[in-house]
Amino acid sequence: AQSVAQPEDQVNVAEGNPLTVKCTYSVSGNPYLFWYVQYPNRGLQFLLKYITGDNLVKGSYGFEAEFNKSQTSFHLKKPSALVSDSALYFCAVRGSQTGANNLFFGTGTRLTVIP
Amino acid sequence: IAGITQAPTSQILAAGRRMTLRCTQDMRHNAMYWYRQDLGLGLRLIHYSNTAGTTGKGEVPDGYSVSRANTDDFPLTLASAVPSQTSVYFCASSPTGALNEQFFGPGTRLTVL
Predict the structure, then answer these.
(1) A103 contacts in B (CB within 8 Å)?
(2) Is it the case that residue A100 has pLDDT exceeding 70?
(3) B-contacting residues of A 10-49, CB under 8 Å?
(4) How far is B17 from A16, CA to CA, in rounded Å?
(5) b/e per residue, A44-68, with b = 16+ CB within 10 A?
(6) Alpha-carbon distance B54 to nearest alpha carbon in chain A (angstroms)
(7) C-alpha distances in angstroms, B14 versus A34, A94, B45, B96?
(8) What is the pLDDT of residue B98?
(9) Cα torsion angle, A51, A56, A59, A63, sign
(10) A93 touching B, CB under 8 A?
(11) Which residues on chain B are in Cβ contact (under 8 Å) with A106?
(12) How many Å lie between the alpha carbon of A98 and the closest alpha carbon of chain B?
C-alpha cells in the first residue's frame, strides 16, 4: 500500500519569507514522489519530482523539495514566497498497483502568502 | 496550444441520468487517467488506460466506465448518476512510464441532484 500525508490543511506565510509545505509518505519499494500546484478553477500543474539521486530536487517557479528517507518526508520549500504562490499544493506518490502508473495524492495544503 | 481539454466545464444532472464526460489530449501520450477531487480527500483515481484499447480500474471505479478507442480520447461515463458522484473530475495524461509526470485538464464540475 502507498499513501502520502499532508499534515497541514493551511499554511500562511508573509511575502518574502521562506515557505515550507510538509509531506510524509508511506510506500513499499522505491518512492517516486511528486509535487503539484492547483490554482483556483484550474487543473493541477506539475512542480517537481524525486525519482533517485540528489535528495534536493529543484523545480518550477523557484520551488524545491528535500527528500529525506529516514524521516520518509518530501517537504516542498521556497526561499522567498510570492503572493502569486498562493494556491493549493498536493504531494503525490506513484502507486505500486501492477499496471497502473497512477499517483496517490495527499489531501492538499492551501498556501496563503500575505502581502 | 497542446494540452488536455475537458467538456463540459460544469454540469448539473438529475440522479439516475446517464452522463459522459469528455477528455481529449493532443500530446500523443499513451497513458490517460480519470480522477475525482473531493474536499478533504484529495484526488482519487477512478480509471486509467495505459494505451489505446486497454483500460483498468483505479481506487474508486464503481459507478463509472471508460473506453479508449484511440490515443487522443478517454471519455468517462456515469451510467446512472447518484448524488455521491457530485465532484470535480480531472482527466490527465502522461507519456509511457511510471516516472513521467502527468498533465491535467481543467476539470469538470459535476453536481448530481
Answers:
(1) 43, 45, 102
(2) no
(3) 32, 34, 36, 41-46, 49
(4) 50
(5) bbbbbbbeeeeeebebeeebbbbbe
(6) 11
(7) 37, 35, 24, 37
(8) 64
(9) positive
(10) no
(11) 42
(12) 10
**Cell 492551501 identifies what position?**
A110
Q: What share of chain A is helix, strand, coil (3-state, %, to 5)?
A: 5, 50, 45
Q: How far apart are CA B99 and CA A11, in angstroms?
A: 29
Residue of chain A whose Cα is closest to the Cα of B45: A102
Neighbouring-strand partners of residue B35: B45, B90
Closest CA of chain A from B37, distance in Å: 9
- Quick one: which of A99, A110, A98, A89 has its CA closest to A45? A89
pLDDT for residue B2 is more than 80: no
Q: B90 to chain A: which residues are within 8 Å by CB?
A: 43-44
- Cα separation, B35 vs B45, in Å, equals 4
pLDDT interval class at A29 (50, 70, 90): confident
